[in-house]
Amino acid sequence: MTLAERKEERREDKGSILALPPYSAHLAMRATLYFPAMKPKIRITRRLEFDAGHRLPNHKSQCRNIHGHRYAIELTLAAEPIHEDGASDDGMVMDFGDIKQIAKERLVDVWDHAFLVWRGDKIMRDFLQMIPGHKTVVLDEVPTAENLAAAAFAILEHAYRDRFGHELTLERVRLYETPNCWADALRPPTN
Fold it and tell me: Which end of the chain is more exposed for a tag (fewer CB within 10 A), N or C?
């Protein structure tokens, strides 16, 4: 097939995948001409902070002792932006204020200034129960950064989906235990 015949074939069949021009540095730019309705999924992230105490009862070093952290949590959500003329959140994946409100209600206000204790740490649980009105959160796993990130993901995943539909997904929870140490809980890839 000659170059002229290929150009003519492309002109006749603009919507087909076969009509895409050969790969070149301009392929991405040309693809928008063929698929103008394709909209990218956008990821947004909201960061919140809270203070909490914990201990890792079986740790080989200092973390087995009672201590606390100024935790930071980053929530990454993904979706196509909302396109609704006149709406306050037009052009947004989700209003950052709404992300914060949900995270505070479901997680941050619950964990803030609490002691995060593993259910299996009977000595610590018994001690905390002796303190009247103490704010204690009992967890099914040892409260490592990794387990706290996974617990936060499980708590928040459906909070965003239930309120805003299945188009919006929680993609990642990043929990900073210190400014230099963090753990990521990621949504498993879908096939």
Answer: C
For 89, the token pair is: 């959140």
Q: Clarify whether residues 49 and 30 are in a common domain.
A: no
- Identify the weakest region by mean pLDDT among 21-25, 70-74, 113-117, 144-148: 21-25
How far, in Å, CA of 168 to CA of 98, rounded? 13
Q: Is the pLDDT of residue 107 over 70?
A: yes
Q: Is residue 191 part of a domain?
A: no
| DSSP annotation string for 12-53 | HTTTSGGGSPPP-TTHHHHHHHH-TT----EEEEEEEEEEEE
Q: How many CB atoms lie within 10 A of CB 189?
A: 5
How many domains does the structure of the chain reveal?
2
Contact 53, 68 (CB under 8 A): yes
Active site residues: 63, 113, 177
Residue at 173 is within a domain: yes
CATH code where residue 149 lies: 3.30.479.10
Domain that holds residue 106: 42-186
Segment 141-164 shows an average pLDDT of 91
CA proximity to 30, closest of 19, 43, 40: 19
Q: Is the predicted pLDDT of residue 108 greater than 70, yes or no? A: yes
> How many C-beta neighbours within 10 Å does residue 124 have?
18
